[in-house]
């Protein structure tokens, strides 16, 4: 199976994914998809763990060489799923967990319609989202915070197009909810 996690910037989807992957019952069954990205690395982020950070030229080369399964442009930067990683995981019989925007979700669902389950992470409120985005070092510029919040509002409009929605108010409960979805493949 392929599980796609989407949600606005600041919804906590990557934190949820990382906590889920630390869980003993999940750990060895799932592969985390690490994407290529042309955006600058934030403090604390690691090459190969958070993203494969590449230049725009390198990203175009990878795209031309068909090494990218799907891609998007987000606030001027390119992001793309490493095709090989997804294909190898599926060949090994493992489940894959991807964090993608709406465009990526639609594309992966189109490529793997039967294998893909999609989950939208809902933030507690727009005010809380604003606070979380502002708290990130790279995005403290008011302009970018505003852009991310506006994009978040637009992403929330697509919520009905996902298989599952999960409210991330309490992190512990949200991890449990996510675990229920990916292990039992059922609605929570
Ligand atoms: P951020 O800059 O906050 O890490 O990511 C910005 C947005 O791009 C998030 O919604 C994230 O889920 C999405 N994203 C990250 N990697 C990919 C990717 O490979 N493909 C697509 N379609 N979206 C991605």
Describe, in plain words, how this protein is organized in 3D.
The structure is a single chain. The chain has about 190 residues and is α/β, with parallel strands linked by helices. It has one domain (about 1-185): P-loop containing nucleotide triphosphate hydrolases (Rossmann fold, 3-Layer(aba) Sandwich), CATH 3.40.50. A hairpin with a 2-residue loop joins strand 5 and strand 6. The model has no long low-confidence stretch (mean pLDDT about 90). It is built from 8 helices and 9 strands. Strands 2-7-1-8-9 form a 5-stranded parallel sheet, sandwiched between helices. Strands 4-3-6-5 form a 4-stranded mixed sheet. The protein is about 45% helix and about 25% strand. Helix 1 crosses helix 8 (about 170-185) and helix 6 (about 125-135) packs antiparallel against helix 7 (about 140-155). The structure holds guanosine-5'-monophosphate. Guanosine-5'-monophosphate binds near residues 74 and 104. Guanosine-5'-monophosphate (5GP) binds next to strand 5, strand 6 and helix 5.
Topology:
Blueprint (H helix, E strand, L loop, with lengths): L1 E5 L6 H10 L1 H4 L2 E3 L2 E3 L13 E3 L2 H9 L3 E7 L2 E6 H9 L3 E5 L2 H10 L4 E7 L3 H9 L7 H15 L7 E4 L3 H14 L4
Parallel strand pairs: 1-7, 1-8, 2-7, 3-4, 8-9
Antiparallel strand pairs: 3-6, 5-6
Helix pairs in contact: 1-8, 6-7
The structure holds guanosine-5'-monophosphate (5GP).
């Amino acid at each position: 199976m392929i599980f796609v996690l989407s949600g606005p910037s600041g919804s906590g989807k990557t934190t949820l994914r990382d906590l889920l992957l630390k869980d003993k019952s999940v750990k060895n069954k799932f592969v985390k998809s690490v994407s290529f990205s042309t955006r600058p690395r934030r403090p604390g982020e690691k090459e190969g763990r958070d993203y494969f950070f590449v230049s725009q030229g390198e990203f175009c080369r990878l795209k031309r060489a068909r090494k990218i399964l799907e891609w998007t442009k987000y606030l001027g930067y390119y992001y793309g799923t490493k095709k090989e990683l997804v294909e190898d995981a599926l060949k090994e019989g493992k489940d894959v967990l991807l964090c993608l925007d709406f465009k990526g979700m639609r594309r992966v669902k189109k490529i793997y319609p039967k294998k893909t389950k999609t989950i939208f992470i809902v933030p507690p409120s727009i005010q809380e989202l604003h606070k979380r985005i502002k708290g990130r070092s790279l995005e403290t510029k008011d302009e970018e915070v505003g852009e991310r919040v506006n994009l978040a509002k637009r992403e929330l409009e697509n919520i009905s197009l996902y298989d599952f929605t999960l409210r991330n108010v309490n992190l512990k409960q949200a991890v449990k909810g996510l675990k229920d979805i990916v292990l039992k493949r059922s609605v929570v």
